[in-house]
Specification:
Elements (H helix, E strand, L loop, with lengths): L2 E11 L5 E11 L4 E5 L5 E6 L6 H9 L18 H7 L2
Antiparallel strand pairs: 1-2, 2-3, 3-4
């Protein structure tokens, strides 16, 4: 029943283009194979199972950089939204 409780700093945009430093906290629960992220005030951001190969965190990393290097071609597993997606998201 091991746990790792770690943190790191990151930056976000504040008012008028200023930069705010924030802390991201993570709790790795090795007995349950889950990682939970918390924001500065201790609120849960999200939790994901870290043993699944295609978990939400992996999907988020894919969506961060969508194009193949030096091209406008989408990376493997990335698709443009279709009309039903746009409607669902009200975009």
């Amino acid at each position: 029943m091991s746990h790792y409780r770690v943190k790191t700093e990151y930056e976000t945009e504040g008012a008028y283009g200023s930069v705010e430093k924030k802390t991201l906290y993570a709790h790795h629960n090795l007995s349950c194979d889950y990682v939970t992220f918390y924001d500065d005030d201790g609120s849960v951001i999200f939790t994901f199972p870290d043993t699944m190969k295609n978990n939400i965190f992996e999907a988020m990393k894919r969506l961060e950089h969508i194009h193949k290097s030096g091209t406008q071609e989408l990376n493997e597993g990335i698709q443009y939204l279709d009309q039903s997606d746009l409607k669902k998201l009200e975009l």
